[in-house]
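[09:14] KT: can someone run the structure on this one? pasting the chain below
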Amino acid sequence: MTVLALCRILLAIYYAKGFRVGCRWILRVEGAEDLNRQVVKSDHTCVKIPHLDFEIPAQSQKGEVTTIEGIVSRAVRGLTQDQAARRAEHPAEAAQIQGFVERLAALTDVQAPWTIELTDISGNCFLENPAAPRRDPRARRYSFTRSDEQNRMLGIYEQHHTEENGPSEELPMNGLSLSEQQEHLLSEADPDAMPYEQLARDEVLSFRTNCPDCGAPCDTNMKMTNIPHFKEVVIMSTSCDFCGHRTNEVKSGGGIEEQGVRFELRVAGKEDFSRDVLKSETCSMEIPELELEVGGRALGGRFTTAEGLISATAAQLRDCPGALGDAPGLHRARLDRFVERVEEVLRGERAVTLVLDDPAGNSYVQSLARDPAAPDAGLKITRYTRSYEQNEELGLNDMRTEDYRPSPSRSPSRSPASECAAS
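[09:31] RB: done, C-alpha cells below
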C-alpha cells in the first residue's frame, strides 16, 4: 500500500467530525472507467442502486477507500456469505437471494447504463472525476442542509435541544461555581457610549476557535467592511501558532438575495485582471475555453481581483494532494499541462471568459463603466430565479419566513437524504 493510499484511509476515518452540510453523489455508470472510479466513503455513507431497489444503510460498514466495482463486489460477497446454510434451511429464500445476487453481479459487466447514489450526512464522501480538472460528464454532487435528527446522529446538538432537558448542573471550574464565575466576567458594552453597529464596523473583533488543520485552539479575527456599490461583508482570518495554518475568508454581511446572479467577464488584458471580485462561498467559477469548472466551496469566500482568483485556482490545482504520490491512476502530466494553460491566461497569452455563478446573489464584480452600478462592455450581469435544486442546496425549501405556526394539515416532508440516513 502506498503512503498516499494510507493517508487517504486515515483521512476518511479522521474527518468523522463532519462538515456543515451533507453531500449526495449521483453517478451514471456507462463503462469500465466508471467502475474504476475511486470512492472515499465514511461510516455515514448510504449507498443506493435505485433500479434494483438496493440499499446499503449508513453505519452498516466502516469508512474505506474503494471503487464503484469494489462497492458492488463487497455487496455480492455479503449476500452470498451464508447461502449454503440458507439452501439447507430456507431453500425458497436462498433462491430469491441468488437471483438478486446474479442481477447485482451483472452490473459490473455494464451491459446497460445504471445509476448509483452515495449520500453522506457528514459530508465526508468523495467520488473521483477521471476527467479532472474538467467537469465530470456523468456525476453530479449536491449539498443539503442536515435536519435536527441528522445532526443528533452525528453528535451535534443545538442549544435549544439541551434546554429541553432542563438546566444543566453547575460544575465547578478553577474552584468557582458558575454563579461565582459570572461575577468575574467582563461587563457588556454600553450601547449609549457606542452603538453595537459602530463597534462592529470600527473594531477588529477576535474570538477563539479551533484550527481546521490540527484542531489546536487559535484566534480568528473578524472585521466588517463596506464594498462600494455593493454591500457590507465580513472578512475573517485565522492563524494557528501551533501548525502555522493561515486562512482568509469573506462572508456576506446580509442574507440570501431574492435572485441568483451570474457574471460573465471577458479577461483579455491588464485592466481586466485588476477588477475587484468578491466571490462568496456559494459562488462557482467556470472558464469555458479551458473546460474548467470550480465548485463554490473549493476556493471559499474571497475578496480579490480577477487575476488573484485565477491564480488561486492554478495554485490549488498545482498543489492538489490527490495528484501527488505514486498511486496508480494519477495523471500528473495531464494536470501539469492543464495548469500551464491556466498560467498562459495569467501571462496574458490567452483571452478567456470568466463566469461566476452565485445562486445566493452575494458575489460582486467591479464594473469599469462611468456609472459603477452599470456593467461595462466586457462584463455581462444576469439575474435569474433559482431552481428547486439550488434552493435545496441553500436550505430554503424547508425554511418558513411567514406564519411560523405549524400547519396541522401539512406534515413536514423528509428529504431523500434524511430517509436514507435514518434507515
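[09:33] KT: thanks! Confidence is low (pLDDT under 50) at residues 1-18, 168-174, 407-423.
[09:34] RB: yep, looked fine to me
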